[in-house]
Specification:
It is a single chain. By secondary structure, this protein is mainly β. The protein contains 1 helix and 24 strands.
């Protein structure tokens, strides 16, 4: 009994010391917000494994979900009224949708495999997601859509893909065929580098975005107007680039050298990305990034002194 008490006491003291050393979380300019999404009026992001939403300038952040499972990959609907995301509410990763104002998330997929949200169809009637539900190897995933009102998912004709973005007229899709290896190996240049292809739903033809000699990783395609914006490590760290579908020109738009752009997404002609632990807006008209200040003051379970099993 004494041994058990001593173990619990030491565990509590250790956690208390850790929480005390970590108590300097900046609640006026909080770091480690990730997987951002943007609409005309709001931003969404994941923090402490929960889904949050805030005003476009980062003010008035509020938590939308409090489940023990992890939420990920939020995306706004085209009208900005809903957020689709992946969540582990029932022990499995499935597609959910929730109003921006909050409420009980609605589950849209029920397959035992993981369903990863990738966006909405341009008309907002369905959620685009990637899944291995009809694949018999861990290398590939496929794209599906599921109606926001519920129903059976429909597989796209693209053979395999990982992340994607519809063109504004829904006639094309910019996508990466397979998951990138850059998350495991920085500056990976092997045979499975991430590439972006443009698929035509009219004639099923494909066009590959050009890459420099020696290869690179291009990912997170975002189709705005006649340009496909994307992350690339072709010049070192991951930065933001654009590909003009008319002139076929590629232009580097950001020039970070300290930390890479980790995740980028778009909505209503805007781009939001995570870099250096902070969120940034990118104005496609002025071609300038701007840091977003988000202050979160909340109860974080992992920082609070607590008893744990010895």
């Amino acid at each position: 009994m004494k041994r058990l008490f001593r173990t619990l006491f030491l565990s509590l003291v250790t956690i208390f010391l850790i929480s005390g050393s970590s108590s300097g979380v900046d609640n006026k300019d909080t770091r480690l917000l990730h997987q951002p999404a943007v609409s005309a009026e709001h931003i969404a992001f994941v923090y402490a494994n929960d889904l949050w939403v805030a005003n476009l300038d980062g003010t008035l952040p509020r938590r939308l979900t409090v489940d023990e499972g992890q939420e990920s990959d939020p995306v706004f609907s085209p009208d900005g009224k809903h957020i689709a995301f992946s969540a582990q509410y029932d022990g499995n990763t499935d597609v959910f949708i929730v109003p921006v104002e909050g409420g009980v998330p609605k589950r849209l997929t029920w397959h035992p495999g993981a369903d990863i949200v990738r966006g909405f169809t341009p008309d907002g009637s369905a959620v685009l997601f990637a899944s291995q539900r009809e694949i018999f190897t861990n290398r590939y995933m496929q794209f599906f859509t599921v109606p926001i009102d519920g129903g059976f998912p429909t597989r796209l004709v693209i053979p395999n893909g990982y992340c994607a973005s519809y063109s504004p007229d829904a006639r094309y899709m910019a996508y990466t065929p397979i998951p990138g290896r850059y998350a495991q190996w920085k500056n990976y240049r092997g045979g499975t580098v991430a590439t972006i292809w443009i698929f035509s739903f009219d004639d099923h033809s494909v066009e590959k975005l050009p890459q420099p000699e020696g290869r690179c990783n291009d990912t997170d395609p975002m189709w705005i107007g006649n340009k496909v914006y994307f992350r690339s490590d072709r010049n070192g760290e991951f930065n933001l680039f654009s590909y003009d579908t008319d002139t076929k020109d590629i232009e580097q738009l950001t020039f970070f050298t300290d930390f890479p752009i980790i995740k980028a997404s778009h909505g209503k002609g805007q781009i939001i990305f995570e870099q250096g632990g902070y969120l940034h807006h990118y104005n496609v008209n002025t071609q300038s990034p701007e840091k977003i200040t988000v202050g979160i003051a909340t109860d974080l379970l992992e920082l609070r002194p607590r008893f744990v099993s010895g």
